[in-house]
Chitooligosaccharide deacetylase
Amino acid sequence: MHDMSVKWPNGARCAVMLTFDFDAETLWTSRDPDNANRPGVLSQGKYGAKVGVPKILDTLEEEGLKGTFFVPGWTAENHTGRVEMILKAGHEVGHHSYSHRWVSDDPAAEVEEMEKGLEALKRTVGVVPKGYRSPAGEVSAGLFKLLQKHNFLYNSSLMDDINPYRHILPDGSKGPVELPWHWSLDDAPYALFSVKSPRPIFTNAHMLDVYKEEFREIYKWGGLYDIIFHPQIVGRPSRIALLRELIAFIRTFPDVWFATGTEVAEAWVAEYEKA
Amino acid sequence: MHDMSVKWPNGARCAVMLTFDFDAETLWTSRDPDNANRPGVLSQGKYGAKVGVPKILDTLEEEGLKGTFFVPGWTAENHTGRVEMILKAGHEVGHHSYSHRWVSDDPAAEVEEMEKGLEALKRTVGVVPKGYRSPAGEVSAGLFKLLQKHNFLYNSSLMDDINPYRHILPDGSKGPVELPWHWSLDDAPYALFSVKSPRPIFTNAHMLDVYKEEFREIYKWGGLYDIIFHPQIVGRPSRIALLRELIAFIRTFPDVWFATGTEVAEAWVAEYEKA
Amino acid sequence: MHDMSVKWPNGARCAVMLTFDFDAETLWTSRDPDNANRPGVLSQGKYGAKVGVPKILDTLEEEGLKGTFFVPGWTAENHTGRVEMILKAGHEVGHHSYSHRWVSDDPAAEVEEMEKGLEALKRTVGVVPKGYRSPAGEVSAGLFKLLQKHNFLYNSSLMDDINPYRHILPDGSKGPVELPWHWSLDDAPYALFSVKSPRPIFTNAHMLDVYKEEFREIYKWGGLYDIIFHPQIVGRPSRIALLRELIAFIRTFPDVWFATGTEVAEAWVAEYEKA
Amino acid sequence: MHDMSVKWPNGARCAVMLTFDFDAETLWTSRDPDNANRPGVLSQGKYGAKVGVPKILDTLEEEGLKGTFFVPGWTAENHTGRVEMILKAGHEVGHHSYSHRWVSDDPAAEVEEMEKGLEALKRTVGVVPKGYRSPAGEVSAGLFKLLQKHNFLYNSSLMDDINPYRHILPDGSKGPVELPWHWSLDDAPYALFSVKSPRPIFTNAHMLDVYKEEFREIYKWGGLYDIIFHPQIVGRPSRIALLRELIAFIRTFPDVWFATGTEVAEAWVAEYEKA
């Protein structure tokens, strides 16, 4: 049998990261720059800032939980008050590019997105992020060196594991810790409709079925449950109910550690690299 | 906690707008002008007029409810008797463009669609609409000025809120009240199949699950439940059953205010701007 | 209230047509001629002839029901034995084009498909069809004249009603009776997967949910339930079980008339045009 | 009635082949060569090797079952240890092309993929495969001659039957035995999401519903249940639970023969060709 369990702090069997990619309008402008002139299209992103973030924060506060919000620089500049609201409530803010551009084929753009994003987060809300998540999991081969250069503790952009692991660069030096994710633990594949990309809208029951089935098995294996929400999606009334129900479900299991990205990465390093 | 509740008339906790976008054939001709010469394709739209509208009107009559029908000018010209039937039954008729063209990138076309639509509604059925809904939520930045010019009370085209709000134009003047909608409260994402755009056909149970989950939470928040049907979709036999079941479900909740677009917008203005 | 009920023979409340479009390989070759050289792709169509048809015939025999099979000329030429098996079991064979080409934009091709199909059906299996169904509901404006010329009793290609009606040509003469269909009562939108057109595969429960919900309401309205299967789809083991379950469900309702296309059209004419 | 039952060894009513196409990164590089430079995209394939294969092997070991793994040559070269792990556990390894390229329109590429794949399997893990499965069911008309030339016992690439059958070549000589498959008994149509191809992610319940319904009827007919998994898909935590549940479900039926591809093909030959 292949035991893949991780030793989590205080004997927890499983770590849970509730993460929120606060793309706002950038989800639409990065896919088609012309969307910047389409108020109807953009209103879908604006909803995330206007309604989604406050309602998510309420939910996390009711549950006494801290989340990890990955924020593009553009969002920090254009919805500064909302990012401050997130920080004031004690949540972690990570880096999520500047404009949500896909840069897997353009390492120079990846550098630009990284640096502009860092600058914007610092200038607008005073954040130096410890974690990075790429838009849609699209990264270039240069990303790991770039994250090392900017002293990132962790990356959460790859899908090749269910446990944290250390990136080792070609020169043998240490890159960031990876905190893997997967499309099945994301809200966008299930609830982000557009006429031009006919992705169906699923029920809460459907989404919870997948999320819960993944949880049960990751709990059994002793791994990391890194789930990805978006304020413009999970912020819809029905989906806030889904978020509450998922948390309630997870809480029926003993020995679960809810943690932020930084907490997970630091615990993994403490257990596996500093012992 | 972020209270987003609205004060509705008579202490209602939630307002419900049952709306019907009576596109008929324009849904197909606006997406591909060649469809005008394809009787098989067009027959899907014709169904909305021939069967959908009468069956919807029967359902609303049985329930003693008034709906809001957004009607393209082309539909008023080509299915005049059906629009008269809607008016005679006491429902509201709003503006839904002339030909269902998407005009977000073409403000001149938006003006033309607006004016031709107004003229057609006036000439054919004597209606001067108080409300506007754009096709597919596609609007240009010029829309709000245009709605102001034509004295529209409300717009129902954006997705950036769950409550009514007032558009303020760049010059500081008042535009229309917005009555927001969302794709998840629409029948088209779930039940409009075409070979060329492989959108799956979902069950009533699936659609009702999303609609009910949205309702429960909007009711809890105290907001506006603005649901969008299409005679060519909800008019199918099975979907008329869905409409009945949704209404019956909503009626199990106390203090719900079923209202037309005009009633919702006027109540919001009376409460928030004239107090 | 808008009563749309039809007077069916012997006081039946509802007529049910079980129809089977026996496309075989033409479903793939008509969409992409290169598929003719791809044995893997074609094998999906061959299944309809090899396994689908015999298993459908077994099911209909067990139930003592007659179906209506719409057969392209190509299929009659290349799976002659299977079409003879259908005829020998007493089912109706209708016209379904020659090669399943979409001809809505090409009236000359429509004429060619019509004539080649008629010739092939006559030559291979001795059938002069009374009914026509176009591939995918795609027809040109010339179809009705063409059906009149070839003395078709009925057409089953449009979606603008739930009841039979008579086509009247521009010159005032009578065209065929229309027996309408709809995508929701078809197996292809739910169970025809291809990598290039990512249409999801649904469960029997999902399909039966839609089919049953449509049936309940059409039964209530007193209309025509014209359901469309394909041997290459409904012939899969699981879908044969679906066909059995649908028939069993319908049989729990009293006063249902199972009939072929010709029987339905003749009954409608007898009731509404010859009285 | 058309009896299509097969005489399986020891009076079994049904044969079950659990197969696993171990594509790893080739699923992405074969669809778009640029993916080779996108670590985020590739990480989805790497997961199959890193986590998927060991967890599948654990599951099969717990159940005491042998599977059939179809392995591209590239995978054997780049994940040699994982293929050795499969062999050591006693499972069958078959041929699955060299690079997962689609070759239906390019017989020369099919030859190249065949020969490079054979060479790689031999060199890296010492396997001379008896069975072949094409990527995505895409084959050219030359495949059967090619399989004959390389002495393949069986092919599992076509969808035109539910039972094994013998390919006869144009010259009348014997090609391989076909062990048919179908998209509905595959995990990829239900659980392989990508932004560029918006295929929805379904629940275990949905997938099991289809898989079980197919099983019940194939069991009833007495045929072959050839189900296709992918380590990069079924290896996800939730899907490993699905695999366990499917096996448990099948085991509630008496007289089921779990077998590898070679065992099924040899039994069919022994019964139908050597008797």
About this structure: The longest helix of chain B spans residues 39-63.
